[in-house]
Amino acid sequence: QVQLVESGGGLVQAGDSLRLSCAASGRTFSSYAMGWFRQAPGKEREFVAAISTTGITTYYADSVKGRFTISRDNAKNTMYLQMNSLKPEDTADYYCAASRTSAQVISITRDSINYWGKGTLVTVSS
C-alpha cells in the first residue's frame, strides 16, 4: 500500500511559478513510476507528466512541455512538479499518481495507475 499526499497548490497570477510536492509513504517508493495528472472543472482527468523509477526518463503533455518539470528524490520519498509560466488554462486539481508499470505507460493511460493522491488545487488568475 502506498499513500500519496500532494502539497504546494494555491492561487497565483498568470506568468508566476509554483512547485507541487507529492510525499509518499512506505519503503517502495523507488520501485514505482510516478506521474502528475490534473482535472479542471467539468473536464476529464488528463495526463501532465511522468517520471521513471530512477528519474532518468520523463514524459510531458504537449500543453506543459517546456514550462513544467517533473523530478523525484527517492531518498525523501518525494516527487515534484515545478510549474513555470503558468497560464489560466493550467487551473485544475493536480493529482499525484503511482504505477507499477512505467512512465511511458502512465503517459498513455490512466488505467496504469495503482495509487492516487487526493489532489491539490492550482488556480491561475489572468
Describe this structure in words.
This protein has one helix at about 105-110, and strands spanning about 5, 10-15, 20-25, 35-40, 45-50, 60, 70-75, 80-85, 90-100, 115, 120-125. With about 130 residues, the chain is mainly beta. The strands form 2 sheets. Strands 2, 4, 5, 6, 9, 10 and 11 form a 7-stranded mixed sheet that branches. The longest helix has 6 residues, at about 105-110.
Output the keywords.
126 residues; 5% helix; 11 strands; four-stranded antiparallel beta sheet; mainly beta; seven-stranded mixed beta sheet
Number of strands: 11
Percentage of β-strand residues: over 45%
The average pLDDT score comes to 96
Question: Strand pairing plus helix content: what structural class?
Answer: mainly beta
How far the N terminus sits from the C terminus, by CA atoms, comes to 40 Å
The radius of gyration computed from the alpha-carbon positions, rounded to a whole number of angstroms, is 13 Å
Give the helix level as a range of percent. under 10%
Give the number of helices.
Answer: 1
Which word captures the global form?
A: globular
Low-pLDDT parts are none
Elements, N to C (H/E):
EEEEEEEEEHEE
Main sheet specs: 7 strands, mixed
